[in-house]
Every structure is written in C-alpha cells, then in structure tokens.
Amino acid sequence: MKVFEKAPAKINLMLDVLHKREDGYHEVEMIMTMVDLADRIEMQELPRDTIIISSQAGYIPLDEKNLAFQAARLIKERYDVKQGVYIHLDKKIPVAAGLAGGSSDAAATLRGLNRLWQLGIPTPELQRLGAELGSDVPFCVTGGTAIARGRGEKLEPIEAPPQCWVILAKPPINVSTADIYGKLRAGHIQRHPSVAKVLEAIRLKRFDLLCDGLGNVLEEVTLDLYPEVRQLKECMLRLGAEGVLMSGSGPTVFGLVSKEAKVARIYNGLRGFCKDVYAVRLLT
Ligand code: ATP
Predict the structure, then answer these.
(1) Which end of the chain is less packed: N or C, by CB atoms within 10 Å?
(2) d(Cα 220, Cα 55) in Å, to the nearest integer?
(3) Are 241 and 248 in contact (CB under 8 A)?
(4) Would residue 224 show up in a list of annotated catalytic residues for this protein?
(5) Confidence (pLDDT) at 190
(6) 214, 276: one domain
(7) Are 127 and 195 part of one and the same domain?
(8) pLDDT number for residue 18
(9) What family does the Swiss-Prot or TrEMBL record give for this protein (predicted)?
(10) Model's pTM, two decimal places?
C-alpha cells in the first residue's frame, strides 16, 4: 500500500515574541497561514521493521536527523507498529528558509502514516505528537490559518485572509532559527506587531489593512546580521509588492500582491536578485 500527502510551506503574517521562558523557549504570538508551494511525500509500506528516507534534494539529511524520519519513528513507537515504511520526499520548499519545510514534512508524515496503517489517531493527538517534533509541526498538521501561542503549539484556527498572490524570494544564505532566537533580546524589542490589527483586517476582508498589519520581531535580528535580506525587502517594495515581510527567522521574504497584472514584473525583477523566487497563491 502507498499513500501521498502534500506538505505546504507556511508564512507568518505576524510574529511577536512576548518573553523568554524559564524552559529556554520563547513565548510567541503568531498568525500563520499556508501557501501553495508544497513538498510531496510518498509513503510506502515495507514488510521489514525499518524506516527508509529518500529525496531528490541533495542537501537534506536522510537519516534520523530528518524530521519525516523522526515523525515515522515516533508514530511507530507510540502505536507499536511493526511494519516499516519507505518515505520519498519530493522537495519543492527551499530548505532552512523560514518556510517550515521540515515541519510540514513531519506533519504530512504523521497524517500519511495514520492513514497507511489505519491507526485512527484523532487530529488533536496527531498535533500533540507533532509538538514533540517541533514548535511549528502542530500547525502544519491541520494547516489553514491560525493564531499560535505558547511556543507555537497552542493553536486557535481563524478565518483565511483575503486571497492574493504571494511572491517568495530566498537569498542564497542559510539562516539558523536557533541562532536568530538566541540573538534576540526579548526585553528590548523596538516595535511589537499586533494580532488584533491582522485579525481586524481579515474580518473586514481588507487587503490594504492586512498589508499594514504585517510584522515580525525577528527582522530586528536577521536584517542586521544579513543586509541582503533588508535589500531584498526594499527591492520587493520598490517593484510594487503591497506588503512585504520576512517569514519566520528568514531569510525568505514574502510580498503580498493583490493584482495579477503586477506579479510577472515583480517576479522577473526579483529573479535578477536571487535564484529562488516563487509566485504562488495563499492556500485558502
Ligand atoms: P522553520 O521555519 O520551522 O525553522 P525552516 O523552513 O527555516 O524551518 P527547514 O527547511 O525545516 O527550515 O530546515 C531546517 C533544518 O532541518 C535544515 O538544516 C535541514 O537540514 C533539517 N531538516 C530535517 N528534516 C528536513 C526535511 N524533511 N526537509 C528539510 N529540512 C530538513
């Protein structure tokens, strides 16, 4: 038996850090949504008790460091599954980009193996398992649009934002999420974005207010460390994107565009700046 799952990329419409907790994690407040740029995960049952990962992407780990491997191992252990699985990751989401590619692969693996092995695990339990693998995994289990609190695992689903084009551009640098959070001085954040502002924009279906409400406190760290990310933001705005923000800890920058007529010009303008550019829709 074989199953397939789509593992879409996420973007943060806003990301705030409230404080650093005693357990070392940061208390966050984020609004996350998904875009139509996705990895495709194929899972095939194996008679032997083993987990095998393959991928056409040469630059991700294929052993127990891979989040899809960890998801499969977790579900096998918890549900005492004796069969093995061969997992192929057809990667489309750029790696270490701030788009939660690994987390989404892990979430898709949990969903897929639940079906493949007919385990009947309810979604909230899949999300609890996901939280053991990473802070973004519970959101990726369901996708949609949600407010995430705690370290990202406390989710409140909300209405989808107004549909638009999303131009994603990743400069050719790798940014470590742990490094960026480590360098953030949570008590000295200059400007906190507002959940209420983004929620109001979504409720009123006002694209202009949504663009105004975008905000990510991690920009304060990443933009100083990597000036090319700041330049990319400026470039996207100059080309005509209506709202521009860095996703997660970066380095990917996304631009929201309401009119299709502008998309090709922005896309082509950015291609002169970096290789990884995508023009996609929100996954609503
Ligand atoms: P986040 O926004 O959740 O921090 P990210 O988009 O910045 O994630 P990922 O693409 O998830 O970053 O990759 C982060 C690291 O995880 C990489 O260094 C990569 O080697 C490792 N990794 C493990 N499993 C995967 C996977 N299935 N796909 C991509 N990267 C993976």
Answers:
(1) N
(2) 34
(3) no
(4) no
(5) 87
(6) yes
(7) no
(8) 95
(9) Belongs to the GHMP kinase family. IspE subfamily.
(10) 0.96
pLDDT score for 187: 87
Q: 76 and 210 share a domain?
A: no
State the catalytic residue, choosing from 91, 136, 170, 233: 136
Q: How many folded domains does the chain comprise?
A: 2
Domain boundary among 112, 128, 158: 158
Q: Say whether 10 is catalytic.
A: yes
pLDDT tens for each residue of 113-169: 999 999 999 999 999 999 999 999 999 999 999 999 999 999 999 999 999 999 999
Residue range(s) defining the domain that contains residue 194: 165-281
Query: Is the model's pLDDT at 58 over the cut of 90?
Result: no
Q: Report the separation in Å between the CA atom of 135 and the middle of ligand 1, taken as the mean of its atom positions.
A: 12
Q: How far is the CA of 144 from the centre of ligand 1 (A)?
A: 20
Q: Which of 113, 130, 158 is the last residue of a domain?
A: 158
